[in-house]
Design brief:
The chain is α+β, with helices and mostly antiparallel strands. It has two domains: 75 residues, Arc Repressor Mutant, subunit A (Orthogonal Bundle), CATH 1.10.10.10; 170 residues, Beta-Lactamase (2-Layer Sandwich). The chain contains ten helices and eight strands. A hairpin with a 5-residue loop joins β7 and β8. The N terminus is likely disordered.
Amino acid sequence: MNQMPVQGAQVVSRIAGLLRIVGRKPEGSPLVELVRESGLTRPTVHRLLTSLAAEGLLDHEARTGNWVLGPEVLLLGSVASTRFPLEDIARPSLRRLAEQTGESAFFSIRRGNDTVCLLREEGSFPVRSFVLHEGVRFPLGVASAGTAILAFLPVGEQEQILADWPAYAGKFAEGHTEAVVRANLKRTRETGYSVNPGLVLEGSWGMGAAVFDQAGRPAWALSLTGIEPRFREDRQEFLGKLLMEEAHRITVQLGAP
């Protein structure tokens, strides 16, 4: 009798994990990538994918062989958006940032110990960084949005994440060593905005500012990304000021103290 809830929860966890992996990229993921990323066996992954497709939550593209999000996810998302009108609130700030800087602007949300990119607004500068787009996840402390959020979490929560940093950061740990992350967090608290000097991808820089919820906790972040010459030190203060102004604007609109 006690086994069923555990088994059911395990299935739900596996399904949620697969949906998250598929949702990282608009083009979806092939079966081999889903097996590798999920850590599940190939038969288990294929069985779950087939079941999700039957419910309309996933589609299998014959041309590419990739599994992509299905139409049911769009319907669920449209209903959920009425409870979380974040696009209506954040989009104007993204447009202002893109227009004033020429860089690509993004709005990300904290989900557990990750940040997930929700919205994007392209800038006018012709050379862009393609590291970030809707659905991309990074661990907190990695990339500019995650650094901006982690820097303003309570110290105890920060230390819990940093305690086993290499395992937590995974493939990003090499570029984001614990010492580098701690230094970035300290600088972010001092200036109010984060700077990622090409740590995710060489030559691709980013800056971010945290957006706070009604409890005063960092729950979202605005960020800008672009190529290194556009983020040199003499321009960072200007970009950081714009980011913090728009982050404060959204924080106020969300009713935070």
